[in-house]
Design brief:
elongated, Sulfotransferase_dom, 23 helices, 560 residues, alpha/beta
């Protein structure tokens, strides 16, 4: 917008100087005009960008343009001064009207989410120290308070559609048809003198054969090549020779830490591996049951070749070598000594991630997966033990966002992603069952934040359709953070582990917490109070059901 300093403040829309009220006329001549005669015309330009505090004024000399407007001013400096004073007055008025104490301006927030529109289109743990961090309460943002009624209607719709219906468990023959190779490799019986499920498998290679040449974990990840280089060197020494044949000891895990992400599973893993009778897979989180056996390396990269079950079993060879050492010792042979070493696996996706089913199994169940991860684990290991670590799903989601979001992280951005995810979840619930939406690959990929991971009771009920309740230990991160020794004793008892010396116990229980929150994430502070209230409303019916299933009101998370 241009301003005529000599004869007008504001030009008409067509921006012609001849339209000036004091210089009107089609034949206007600057030299003859009594107002403009002998004056240098200095047009004043205002920055085209939206002004928030002060107008940015740029003065340029332009002898080719004429000037028009309302009120004639003789000096450009005077116009700039008056214009600046007007803007400053407006700013001061806005502080007075809205309350300078709260640091608010009478302007709409640039982060305001606004009206909702329909859009049906389209890893891993939390530290204990985060549970003890104390943040100062964040200031309330008026624009997000206005969001609450609209989002509450969405949550009410979702709540009205919730039904916890028991799923039908598939029979063994159906599972065999889906994974015939897996059933041909894993036997239905294990060694009787080993607490851990193990068996001997004939090895047909020779001393020059590389047993790990085709292992997908070694091929696709440079991080694990050092481990497999070591296994190659010692492989032949750990074969069992009997009647001119060679056998290798194969093992599956005795227990699984199955979830959830950002709930302290890394800390639990790091402490358990210090126990003298516990071993883990060569990789903390193989994600084989949920992703790798379907050929998923990274979800964003699509599908690759499927990892065969042999690749998964290779990850337990280090532990199998130690178990074999116990079984082949003279004491074991003479006295029938029992192997008490057990193996664990800690993929935090095992409990909840069934996203790949739609690509491999027949979709004849109205959007619900006909087979789940637990169906196959139970088929091979009906006596497996499962450990689940949970936390307040509201805080879990925020921690998940801070960990996985790559750029532009802020409490405002988190709020908007929560709002968008809730509407996408509502759209699904209007047409499908709760289970169908929870396991919906398209929906889960579309939601900006992983709301579904915090629906603990949906997953737990599905695991309880195949495993007995006494085979599952459910812990809370809040309890683990406040009393590590107590929760670790619960785990030792659940796994039936032997007693420890005071020194061993101190090493396990007094170690510093693992996987702490990054300093740059911690500096963002807590989520907005309105966002927390929204998520509390969303997760409340699921937490209520979880507390009923576990007979423990602590899982209501009322005090967090």
């Amino acid at each position: 917008m241009r301003y005529c300093i000599n004869c007008c403040i504001h030009l008409l829309p067509n921006d012609l100087h001849r339209q000036c009220f004091r210089c009107r006329g089609p034949n206007h001549n600057n030299q003859k005009c009594p107002v403009c005669k002998g004056e240098s015309k200095i047009p004043l330009y205002a920055d085209s960008k939206q002004m928030k505090l002060l107008a940015v004024l740029e003065v340029r000399t332009d002898h080719s343009e004429s000037w028009n407007g309302f009120f004639c001013l003789r000096k450009g400096k005077l116009c700039s001064l008056i214009f600046g004073l007007i803007i400053m007055t407006l700013v001061m008025a806005s502080y007075i009207l809205t309350g300078a104490k709260h640091g608010l301006l009478l302007i709409p927030s640039p982060f305001h989410y606004g009206a909702f529109t329909s859009n049906p289109s389209l890893m891993d743990n939390e530290s204990l120290s985060d549970m003890k961090d104390h943040y100062q309460p964040s200031k309330m943002n008026i624009s997000y308070v206005k969001d609450y009624p609209s989002i509450k209607l969405i949550i009410d719709t979702i709540t009205s559609k919730i039904e916890f219906i028991t799923r039908q468990r598939p029979d063994l023959e159906e599972l065999r048809k889906q994974e015939p190779h897996m059933f041909s490799v894993i036997p239905n019986k294990f060694l009787p003198n080993s607490k851990n499920p193990c068996w001997y498998e004939e090895y047909r290679g020779n001393t020059t054969t590389d047993p790990y040449a085709t292992n997908s974990y070694a091929l696709y990840s440079k991080r694990f090549r050092t481990i497999f280089d070591y296994l190659r060197k010692v492989f032949w020494n750990h074969l069992y020779h009997y009647k001119d044949k060679h056998y290798r000891l194969r093992c599956l895990p005795h227990f699984y830490i199955i979830g959830q992400p950002k709930c302290g599973t890394t800390d639990l893993y790091d402490r358990l591996r210090l126990h003298p009778d516990v071993r883990f897979s060569a990789i903390k989180e193989p994600h084989w049951w949920t992703r790798k056996r379907f050929g998923i390396i990274r979800l964003r990269d699509g599908f690759h070749d499927r990892y065969p079950v042999e690749d998964y079993l290779d990850l337990f060879d280090l532990a199998a070598h130690q178990i074999q050492g116990v079984l082949q010792s003279e004491a074991a042979k003479e006295r029938g000594k029992m192997n008490n070493i057990i193996i664990g696996e800690a993929s935090a996706s095992t409990m909840w991630d069934n996203n790949a089913w739609i690509f491999f199994y027949d979709n004849s169940t109205e959007g619900e997966p006909p087979f789940l991860i637990q169906d196959f684990i139970h088929a091979f290991q009906p006596n497996a033990k499962l450990i689940i670590m949970l936390r307040d799903p509201v805080e879990r989601l925020y921690s998940d966002y801070l960990y996985f979001a790559s750029a532009n992280k802020s409490v405002e951005d988190f709020h908007e992603k929560v709002a968008e995810s809730l509407q996408l979840f509502e759209n699904c619930m209007l047409d499908y069952s709760l289970r169908a939406c929870v396991y919906n690959n398209t929906l889960n990929n579309a939601m900006p934040v992983r709301l579904q991971v915090g629906l603990y009771v949906v997953y737990l009920l599905d695991w309880l359709t195949v495993f007995d309740k006494d085979q599952i230990l459910v812990l809370r991160l809040e309890d683990h953070a406040s009393n590590v020794k107590y929760t670790m004793h619960m785990v030792f008892q659940f796994l039936d582990l032997g007693p420890l010396s005071e020194k061993q116990e101190a090493l396990i229980t007094k170690s510093p917490a693992s996987n702490t929150r990054r300093p740059e994430d911690r500096s963002l502070g807590p989520m907005l109070p309105t966002t927390k209230a929204i998520l509390r409303d969303f997760y409340r019916p699921f937490n209520t059901k979880l507390a009923q299933v576990l007979f423990d009101d602590a899982f209501l998370w009322k005090r967090t």
